[in-house]
TrEMBL record:
<keyword id="KW-0998">Cell outer membrane</keyword>
<dbReference type="GO" id="GO:0043165">
    <property type="term" value="P:Gram-negative-bacterium-type cell outer membrane assembly"/>
</dbReference>
<dbReference type="InterPro" id="IPR011990">
    <property type="entry name" value="TPR-like_helical_dom_sf"/>
</dbReference>
<keyword id="KW-0472">Membrane</keyword>
<dbReference type="GO" id="GO:0009279">
    <property type="term" value="C:cell outer membrane"/>
</dbReference>
<feature type="domain" description="Outer membrane lipoprotein BamD-like">
    <location>
        <begin position="2"/>
        <end position="151"/>
    </location>
</feature>
<comment type="similarity">
    <text>Belongs to the BamD family.</text>
</comment>
<comment type="subunit">
    <text>Part of the Bam complex.</text>
</comment>
<protein>
    <recommendedName>
        <fullName>Outer membrane protein assembly factor BamD</fullName>
    </recommendedName>
</protein>
<dbReference type="GO" id="GO:0051205">
    <property type="term" value="P:protein insertion into membrane"/>
</dbReference>
<dbReference type="Pfam" id="PF13525">
    <property type="entry name" value="YfiO"/>
</dbReference>
<dbReference type="InterPro" id="IPR017689">
    <property type="entry name" value="BamD"/>
</dbReference>
<dbReference type="InterPro" id="IPR039565">
    <property type="entry name" value="BamD-like"/>
</dbReference>
<comment type="function">
    <text>Part of the outer membrane protein assembly complex, which is involved in assembly and insertion of beta-barrel proteins into the outer membrane.</text>
</comment>
<keyword id="KW-0732">Signal</keyword>
């Protein structure tokens, strides 16, 4: 109840401390799942907008995972999964924000590296279609046509009905390029795995 009261009053540090004390002393009690959930919420409810440091987002993800894995049959697991997905998407959005910043200033290699992180590490988030499109933009600007074409091919395979794919298709064909996986690069490996099912 102390953890709940602190959390209700937005005293997140004391809410975390009270919840952690309960977990330390009563890890097998019926209310342990709720204590872990409150601990996770005390991080999650402090997640700032994507322009700020994401340390709390990482801590929220770890604590939400503890609810999901430690108490999968509890009434808090489903909500923890929803919040985990939202926090995960939040991290991907941060990478996208930084990537767009670099792209707008002509730092194409730095931008491509950020978009690559989204495609490789956050591919289940809603940021992935834009990340693939931005890779097409960045790689075309760098003169890396094969990488741009392959990013477009992955985008077309997974998100054909989106504006991101239509814009990528127009960019590529406007340069006389086909939307196809070509060359031997990191995106080609993803294309072979995801589209063709070639894992070796």
């Amino acid at each position: 109840m102390a953890a709940f009261a602190y959390h209700r009053d937005r005293d997140y540090e004391n809410a975390r401390a009270a919840a952690q004390r309960y977990l330390d002393f009563y890890p097998a009690e019926e209310d342990a799942a709720y204590a872990q959930y409150l601990l996770a919420l005390s991080y999650y409810d402090q997640i700032d907008d994507i322009g700020r440091d994401q340390g709390l987002t990482f801590q929220a993800l770890q604590s939400l995972r503890a609810v999901i894995e430690g108490y999968p049959d509890s009434q808090y697991a489903a909500d923890a999964m929803v919040k985990f997905d939202l926090a995960f998407n939040h991290l991907a959005a941060k990478e996208m924000e930084i990537g767009r910043y670099y792209l707008a200033r002509g730092h194409y290699a730095a931008a491509a590296n950020r978009f690559r992180v989204v495609v490789e590490d956050f591919q289940t988030t809603q940021q992935t279609p834009e990340a693939l499109y931005r890779l097409v933009e960045a790689y075309l600007a760098l003169g890396l046509d094969a990488e741009a074409q392959t990013a477009g091919a992955i985008l077309g395979h997974n998100y054909r009905e989106t504006d991101w794919y239509r814009d990528a298709h127009a960019l590529l064909t406007g340069r006389g390029l086909r939307v196809e996986a070509t060359g031997d690069n990191w995106l080609s490996a993803i294309y072979r795995q995801v589209v063709r099912g070639e894992w070796i």
